[in-house]
Amino acid sequence: MISKSTSESLVIDDFSSQLPVIGKHLNEFALYHLQENVSLDKSYKMSDTFAIIVVYKGDLTIKIDGRPHSLSRGAIACIPPGKTLNLNLKDQEIDGYMMTFSSLFFELLQIPVSVSKDKLMINSESDPIENTLNRIDQIFSLIKDGLSNSDDLFRKEKLLNLVAVFFIEIINAYAQNNPIAKKLCKADGLSRKNKICKDFFVLVKQHSREERQLKFYADKLCVSPKHLSFLIKNATGLPANKWITDAVIHDAKHLLQNSGNSVKEIAYILNFSNQSFFGKYFKREVGISPSDYQSEVLC
Predict the structure, then answer these.
(1) How do residues 264-273 score in pLDDT, each as one tens digit?
(2) Distance between CA atoms of 22 and 150, rounded to whole angstroms?
(3) pTM for the whole structure
(4) Considering the chain, what percentage of its residues have pLDDT values greater than 70?
(5) Secondary structure E strands in the chain
(6) Which domains does the chain have, with CATH numbers?
(7) Where on the phi/psi map is residue 64: left (φ > 0), alpha (ψ -120 to 50), or beta?
(8) Residues 6+ away with beta carbon under 8 Å from 153
């Protein structure tokens, strides 16, 4: 297993050692099949990782921060970052899926309602959304196809859209019986601060290869760097600079894993002044050099 400092990769790799992973997962996204005779024998700290569990058949007991939750057919549990997750099967006929993805992946989702990450947990003991399962199953089929096609140049973009549709389906299902949630879904537009946050992540996705300075993004959004940093930290719990750095590192990992380019060429693609600077930047964030990382993932 590759030693990485980013906690979401550690969780994905650890899950992959015990759960059947579908297709070739990305650094920031993976899909697992929960089925009979499979369980995780220890707790996992979801430091910077979301987990979504959907149950199609049987009964599943999970523990979130030590508190047990019983999931039956149609139940969905969303576990936000910072929680500790433990899975144990209580029915050998269990069938379901679990998605894990990084905070950066979540922030890039185009969801048409404001969802606080601190309040993302959907009560796993609420009424199951039986009438939504067929549509969710269709979404998972498309996600599985996307994960299986590692040669698709737009694989990540397709997965982002499919996961966004998944969230829209479950938000819509719960809102039907929740007047407050329905009102939120019908609200016209986002507040200015939420719009700034959303636009920031779009800009990071578009420009992180060329621009790593917070001032560039603040200027684009017509706010001061200090105010932008405050808004992003308040909305996500992480500083804006950390999101920019994470975007660069995710891009660097993708290039190191999937391109035939040398480390020097990748440093040029990512707009580093030289290979040495890129190497120090990468090692500071990941814990190993780009060349060592490339050697381990391609071995």
Answers:
(1) 999 999 999 8
(2) 12
(3) 0.56
(4) 72
(5) 29-35, 44-45, 49-57, 60-64, 67-71, 76-79, 84-89, 95-102
(6) 7-186 (2.60.120.280), 192-298 (1.10.10.60)
(7) beta
(8) none
**Which of 10, 29, 51 minimizes the C-alpha distance to 158?**
29
Which range is least confidently modeled, 29-43, 108-122, 191-205? 108-122
Which of these, 143, 154, 140, 157, lies nearest to 55 by C-alpha position?
Answer: 140
Q: Are 30 and 125 in contact (CB under 8 A)?
A: no
Dist. CA 148–CA 174, nearest whole Å: 31
Other CB atoms within 10 A of residue 8 CB: 26
CB 12 within 8 A of CB 59: no
**Contact of 84 with 45, CB cutoff 8 Å:** yes
| Alpha carbon distances (Å) from 235 to 21, 51, 90, 119, 252 | 31, 19, 37, 12, 26
The token pair that represents 265 in the structure block: 């060429």
Query: pLDDT by residue (tens digit) across 184-208?
Result: 455 444 466 777 888 898 899 889 9
